[in-house]
Write a structure and sequence with these properties.
single chain; 363 residues; alpha+beta; Nucleotidyltransferase, domain 5; 3 domains; 6-stranded mixed β-sheet; 4-stranded antiparallel β-sheet; 13 helices; globular
Length: 363
């Protein structure tokens, strides 16, 4: 059972970035099964559910079926410029590679570290791995990898088999304007619908639809109250960057190019014409980095006009201007005599040995 509400589909197309988080969670009801979800991110950095589906089990076939319908709903003719974030679920990696060969495929770094620490423990190794994941330019990444190799050659060999394009910012594309390393979007969505997961299928679907309906209205009303051109979470990030930019010193190099110094040996090149910095943080996120803000302060400019439009209040309003229509309750449904009854799925014994449930004495 696949659901992609018209309001969610149109809202995503109206302003969400082309990054989609994919995940599946098990259902606790009588018929069990899994709930697959596709979640994106809004202009304020909050989650934006796109589509969800109930399937019998989480495998390559079910992910292919889910993503094929999602592909048609979102009009993905060419997967270039799209990004899919996942926890490398069963069959999901293969399904994404088959349907979206030109898309960027990212893996959650938290999951990578969870597997990494089973064989390579220690805070020093953990810090080196996360430094490599957060590195945004080549030298920074190489320094982190060299440090990790010095600490443990086995850990280096383990990590060497992973493609940096899937877990390090150094090779992330700048087209999606997101440097996200974690698959938190789907985890937040699963937490929102937690109380619905143990209900019968139709009841669960009704609860999820109502929660999304209420969420869209609340986000729209909150966005209308925003003062200023940017969404509040983005403005907070920008204010922190403005404070940190005071430690940088910018020098004009002619035209729209500048040289920015931030301490001994830390010298970067800024191109204001292309909104690009050699640290690549502005390129990746669309939010000016401390080096760009230092150049703006040199000319007494405010950084807000330089923030990408995907973070603007107007974009957030466009996303949440699509509302979900209310639905009548069961007692007001029209009965169609010709309609065949909806039958529940066949119950199948799950794989593995059944649990041994011993009865208590005297029961």
């Amino acid at each position: 059972m696949y659901v992609c509400l018209q309001a969610c589909k149109e809202g995503f197309k109206a302003g969400c970035r082309r990054i989609i988080s994919l995940d599946g969670c098990f259902l606790k009801g009588y018929y069990t099964g899994y709930l697959l979800a596709a979640v994106s991110i809004d202009a304020n950095g909050g989650i934006y559910p796109i589509a969800y589906a109930v399937v019998e089990s989480e495998n390559q076939y079910s992910w292919l079926w889910f993503l094929e319908i999602l592909e048609r709903d979102l009009d993905i003719d060419n997967s270039y410029g799209w990004c899919f974030m996942s926890d490398r679920q069963k069959g999901l990696v293969e399904a994404v590679a088959e349907l979206f060969p030109n898309a960027e495929a990212r893996n959650c770094v938290r999951l990578i570290y969870a597997k990494f620490k089973k064989y390579h423990k220690g805070k020093a190794l953990k810090d080196a791995l996360w430094r490599a994941a957060r590195a945004t330019y080549g030298r920074e990444f190489q320094d982190a990898i060299t440090e990790l190799k010095t600490l443990s050659n086995d850990a280096f060999e383990w990590l060497k088999h992973l493609n940096p394009q899937q877990w390090s910012k150094v090779q992330f594309s700048a087209t999606t304007k997101s440097d996200m390393l974690l698959n938190n979007l789907c985890e937040c969505f699963n937490k929102i619908i937690l109380e619905a997961r143990d209900k019968p299928i139709l009841t669960m679907m009704g609860l999820i639809r109502t929660k999304i309906m209420r969420r869209i209205v609340c986000r729209y009303e909150a966005t209308e109250k925003i003062n200023g051109p940017l969404c509040p979470n983005i403005q907070k990030k920008l204010n922190i960057i403005i404070d940190q930019a005071t430690r940088c010193w910018a020098t004009h190099a002619g035209g729209l190019k500048y040289q920015v110094e931030c301490g001994p040996g830390n010298q970067l090149v800024m191109d204001m014409g292309s909104h690009s910095c050699s640290c690549r943080k502005w390129d990746l996120t669309g939010i000016p980095c401390i080096h760009a803000v230092a150049v703006m302060q040199l000319h007494n400019d405010r950084p807000e006009p330089y923030v990408h439009t995907c973070y603007h209040k107007s974009t957030q309003l466009a996303i949440y201007s699509n509302f979900i229509c209310p639905v009548k309750g069961v007692k007001q449904w029209t009965i169609v005599i010709e309609m065949e009854p909806i039958l529940p799925p066949e119950l199948r014994r799950p794989p593995g040995r059944p649990t041994n449930q011993k009865k208590e004495k005297g029961s």
